[in-house]
Amino acid sequence: MTERLRDIVRRISRPPSNSTRLINYYWQRTRRNKLAIFGLTFIIFLVLLAVVGPFFTLDPTLVDFENKNLPPVGFTIEQSVYNTETDDFITTKVSGTWNHPLGTDSKGRDMLAMLISGARVSMLVGLIATGIAIILGTIIGVLSAYLGGWVDNVLMRLTDIMMTFPFFILLVLIVFIFGPSLVIIVLAIGLTGWTGTARLLRSEALSLRTREFITAAKAMGASDNRVIFRHLIPNVISLIIVIATLAIPGVILAEAALSFIGLGDPTVPSWGIILEAGQNSLRTAWWVAVEPGIMIFLTVLAFNFLGDGLRDAFDPKSNI
To answer: Domain span at residue 178?
Structure first.
């Protein structure tokens, strides 16, 4: 009888992540979604850009007022410069140069270098903050569903209380109190963004805790920790992956919004800080605001496309 129970647990609760066949199956389903493949390709490109790019670009904080407000390559603008000798403004045409292929800002800083720095900041904040939120949400949601009773009531009431506070306002308050540090921003997003994950995983775990492999594991004398971490969590890993993929763009937008309103880390050039710096020079140097805006748009779109594709791939009812 014991051997039979062990065999049931091994066959039914085997984590999908340990099965090469299932990984290939899900990959084949995902690759049918062209938008998901586009999103994955752009994300890989962004990660490579953030990792390798700084070795081939200028210092993003380097100031060069002699080359300020240079347009991107292929564009030409007119600049008015005050001449002290003639006591008049002289209008000259300025064209983009390959020394600064994406132009420069009002301080002469290279836009390409700043965008790459912004990509590194956005990916770090997105991945780390989402990872913290996913871990907290997974543990709280699964524990609440599995243990039930007063534990479920306490954890879910805590979740309800957290969800009553508007996420961005709570984020602004925390950063305002503790200071605009990148570490504080990551921790603030991670420690306040777990509520949705906890709710979704609790619902999924409630349906799993009555399944045969959980009953069999308990009958074999498995501890609660073993049941939770070896059987419950591995069987919701597909949902966790989808939640994480769809949560990252929200985190990136939150960091950009904080930087845009002046609560970002001033020591690191992020897309939000660049966007905020360019809003006052849209007529004279439109690219300073447009380029980080395009990067934010494409990054959020890529993660959303990938998340939708993974959600369809993991859904057995989907006919992709």
So the answer is: 2-69+104-314
